[in-house]
Amino acid sequence: MLYYPLFLKLQGEAVLVVGGGRVALRKCKKLVEAGARVTVVSPRILPEFEKLGVQVVAREFRPSDIESPKLIFAATNRREVNAEVKRCADARGIPVNVADCLEECSFLVPATLERGNVQIAVSTSGQNPRLAKQLRIHLEKLLAELDKESERVDHKHATS
Predict the structure, then answer these.
(1) What is the CATH T-level fold of the domain 14-109, as seen in this structure?
(2) What DSSP line would sit under 108-150, residue for residue?
């Protein structure tokens, strides 16, 4: 399945992340960088969440947690909870990313690379995240080489 590539403006937007482990933490970091107002719901939360400035609700997920977020991430280690989050999100028409089930995702999060105002997203439509990561690493190296070349050219022109 092909997905439509898209960059979302999340500055100030409510985003719900259900889960308090490493996968949820990784997603939260990127959401906070994008300026989203993140609420994390999980009975157990890694201490690193405290440093992110997200709202933490330390309890099990409830359907009432889904009021009006722009996006929802289901990132628990419990299949039944992730499936319930998906059902609730679908009932409200809210896009959801389900960490443990590609088929239940209404959107994917690509591997990304940022350099200044340039953002590059790489996706394999969820089929091979490892390849997407390898492509991102290769692009990072390529951009670093281009930066060096640009600096050489800029320096050459400045001294001419």
Answers:
(1) Rossmann fold (3.40.50)
(2) ---EEEEETTEEEEE--TTS-HHHHHHHHHHHHHHHHHHHHHH
